[in-house]
Each structure stands twice: as C-alpha cells, then as structure tokens.
Specification:
Residues 44-63 bind DNA. It comes from Pseudomonas chlororaphis. The protein is 73% helix and 0% strand. It is mainly α. The protein folds into 2 domains: 18-62, Homeodomain-like (Arc Repressor Mutant, subunit A, Orthogonal Bundle), CATH 1.10.10.60; 74-206, Tetracycline Repressor, domain 2. α8 packs antiparallel against α9 (186-207).
C-alpha cells in the first residue's frame, strides 16, 4: 500500500526582475480577491489568471497548481503571525506575562480584522496542511513560543513546557477563529482578549 503524496506547493521559481516581481504580486492580489469572493471550493487557477489579466501559462510559470497559490497566501499570513510573535515575545524590556497579554490582544484583533480571508484559507487548508513546507512554517512560530516559555518557566520540566506550548497556541488559534467568525466591536474584542490573557496567565503561573 503506497502512502498518498502531498501536492507540490513550492513556487516553481522566484521572480528575479522587477517586472516578474510585479507579476507575482498581481497574481497574489488577484488570488486574494478570488478567494474572498468565490471561497476555497470555487478557487481555480483560471479564475486567478482572469482576475489578474494574465494567461494561465503566466501563472503556471510561478505556481504549479492552485494549492501552491493558496499555500503562498497562507504562508504570507503565517509569516505575519510569526513576526508578531517574535516582535512581542522577544521584547525583553517588558515582563514576560505582560508580553503574553500583549500578544493575545494583538492576535485576537488580527483575527477579527482578517476574519473573512483567514476563514477562506482555513477551508483551503486540506490542500496543503500536510506538506513539508507547511509544517516548516508552523514550526517557526512554535519555536518562538517555546523559547518564551523557557524564559518564563525555566524550572518547569521540558514536557510541561511542551504541553503548555501546544495548549496555549492551539487554544489561541481555535478560539480566535471561532470568536472572529462573528462581527465584533472594538470593546468586545478587547474584553474577550483580556479574559483569554488572564486565563493563560493563571494557567502558566500555576506551572511555575
């Protein structure tokens, strides 16, 4: 019995010239619009090419299939989240628990601001979530949070920190997605984020 192979999701080539960079940017912008309008189920390379005003062949120069386009959109979103994690959690001048609180507030606001696009990308996740490239991108964010927990809980067993990392990140992602599925006011977002931050704080302090 052979195992199912993950689809190829790496870009065929990277743009080397300004014109090529502009073309890829136009393709990704068109892909964002198609995904927002049509959803993952009706997302096709042909629709992206039509929206971008280029030939399907031009799209295939850089993306071998629609999974590669969707993964690029998801990868860009993951990288934004990773940068958020790094910028907030590695700011050593701020006490660790205050950094955690700031992260929760920033993440929940971001989830609500980008709810439509992130929901569509979540629907498309089965196309690429098991690919090595996807696991590599997700691991980067996990590594940043693991380093933060080592700073916060230096005496805790490694297994305890690993469990805490998985629990906090999974809860933040899952609950953030659920909460952002309904339009929220700024006051509701702030109150919800604060409650979640306090919940994480109580849990992590109890591990110290």
């Amino acid at each position: 019995m052979t195992s199912r192979q993950s689809p190829r999701i790496s870009s065929r080539k990277l743009p080397q010239q300004a014109r090529s960079t502009e073309l890829v940017a136009a393709i990704l912008e068109a892909a964002t619009q198609v995904l927002a309008k049509e959803g993952a189920s009706r997302f096709t390379t042909a629709r992206v090419a039509e929206r971008a005003g280029v030939s399907v062949g031009s799209v295939y120069q850089y993306f071998p299939n629609k999974a590669a386009i969707l993964f690029r959109l998801q990868s860009d979103e993951w990288q934004q989240t990773t940068h958020m994690l790094r910028d907030i959690l590695q700011e050593r001048r701020t006490p660790p628990l205050e950094r955690l609180r700031a992260l929760v507030h920033a993440f929940i606001r971001s989830e609500c601001d980008e709810a439509q696009m992130r929901g569509a990308l979540s629907d498309a996740a089965p196309l690429y979530r098991d690919a090595p490239e996807a696991r590599e991108v997700r691991a980067a964010g996990q590594g940043i949070f693991q380093a933060f927990l080592l700073e916060l809980l230096p005496e805790a067993p490694e297994a305890t920190r690993a469990l805490a990392c998985d629990l906090v990140l999974t809860t933040l992602s899952s609950v953030g997605k659920e909460f952002s599925g309904t339009p929220r006011t700024p006051a509701q977002i702030a109150a919800y984020a604060e409650a979640m931050a306090q919940m994480f704080r109580a849990y992590l302090v109890g591990l110290d």
